[in-house]
């Protein structure tokens, strides 16, 4: 009896310790460093009898999904096979997954099929475990009863039916194929054609083919394909004397026939690299290289207009380099391989002439005007006062007045006129030129922080110095425009010149857009908006009739109502930062055929993309998290989204032709 209190104390102590441990486990199991990962087995699998399982995983660690593959029930193991994991958005997931937050994974399976081959009523062979929509290898042909009986193929019916083409027909379900035989033979005459010959040096061979046989003329089947001459490859068979093309893998022999091989000349890709002092022009875009396809055996002139890059001022192509070795005969270059050639350059020196006299230096007084010719020669370097740059001629002065330097163009020479109104304190204006018939970089207006354009007249004075064919304008500098000079002023000035300007405002920090509802025949064809712009105002580009391409800033969040409505825009890339697209934003943009909407967009206004022209919309976000108005998209085009089947039936998204992304 004396031991009873001691025993009770021991039991109570154990209970207290157990409870304490339980409380500790409960508290520590809810750990902010861990997240829950759920695996859904789907209808074809299970996890030890359950449809899904949950595990706790530490954040920011890798998880091997192969360790959690679902079990396939015994009765389904020969019919289904695990294929891959998808996440809640429908994206395919790699087996090694980096866990950052709670996630759900859904198992996807592929059906397994079986094909039985019958020779008469007897099973000849069978192939099991065939993945749905895959191809099978043709089994070894069965032997005939005697040498006069010829096997012609496997058919999908014991009587009649179609012959099974093992190269073209994929298995989509369990099926049976049946052997077919014939005793009749046909003569098939094959002619090698103009540029081929058979392996036995014959231009023509004759084959005895069983009636109903299917012949493979795939180029990989060397037995029935002649060899081509150098620079020629086999294209196809045609029925001799006609334009009837013979299918490569499904030509059925039903009678005697004659076929002739047709050939195509080899073409090689020659990539021409402009190098450091030149460029190629592709629809207004300057590129460092271009690739051309040339028939084998042809020769080309690498110094010809079709192949020589446009050189920057003062440079010319002197040689072409092939893998470090100069091309021996660039004027008559033989194309007999794929090649990558790089241009090598030489440059002349710039001299200044006035009234036909070479100038060693130039002193210009205030308000003095002087006509100067720029000429390239080889025996000397330019005077130090004038620096030849890739972007044009750099003119710098130490004058005390703010203003500009004018460069005027004529058909045969470049004129520089300085009227005493040059930028103060060393400010620069860099303008491209055409020197000795060579176009330089686009017009670049560069000013330091203290130099501004206060009025449209200031800009017009600079534009008057442009050549007739120059349309590229890049404006940069935080204070290029004064506060009173707006984008509307800029557009009006450019419109007066009647050109299709390409305007780069990406580095123009101090520009006011304001209410710019231009609906006339505008002059801006391509436009790069400033990086500082986060919202496009209502109707900013409404009705632009010449605008084809706009590059939006990376930090843009809002596209206002009717921002591009009724414009002629052909191409636009919406940035990843975009969150809202206003009503009628791209309404009736007839030239815009395709738009990709980024994943952060959560609001799209009424009839934002409605109208003619659009052929495809891709939405990369979660449709259920994005509110849309009425008639947002055309009804007759596909809208590609993640998991369209998961969108509720009452959602406005269901009004459109949704396709899985």
Offer a few descriptive terms.
661 residues, 6-stranded parallel sheet, 7% helix, extended, Leucine-rich repeat protein, LRR_dom_sf
What do you see in this structure?
This protein has about 650 residues and is mainly beta. The protein has 3 helices and 54 strands. The strands form 15 sheets. Strands 1, 2, 4, 5, 7, 8, 9 and 10 form an 8-stranded mixed beta sheet that branches. β21 and β22 form a beta hairpin. The longest helix is centred in the first third of the chain and has 27 residues.
Q: How many individual β-strands?
A: 54
Mean pLDDT: 75
Helix fraction? Answer: under 10%
Structural class: mainly beta
- The number of helical segments is 3
* Major sheet: 8 strands, mixed
Low-confidence stretches: 16-31, 348-355, 359-452
Q: Termini, distance in Å? A: 79 Å
Shape: extended
Strand content: 35-45%
Rg calculated over all Cα atoms: 38 Å
Subcellular location: Cell envelope
InterPro entries: InlB-like_B-rpt (IPR013378), Listeria/Bacterioides_rpt_sf (IPR042229), LRR_5 (IPR026906), LRR_dom_sf (IPR032675), Surface_bspA-like (IPR053139)
Protein name: Leucine-rich repeat protein
Main location: other
Summarize the structure.
With 661 residues, the chain is mainly β. Helices cover 7% and strands 38% of the residues. Strands 1, 2, 4, 5, 7, 8, 9 and 10 form an eight-stranded mixed β-sheet that branches. It has a six-stranded parallel β-sheet with strand order 40-41-42-43-45-47.
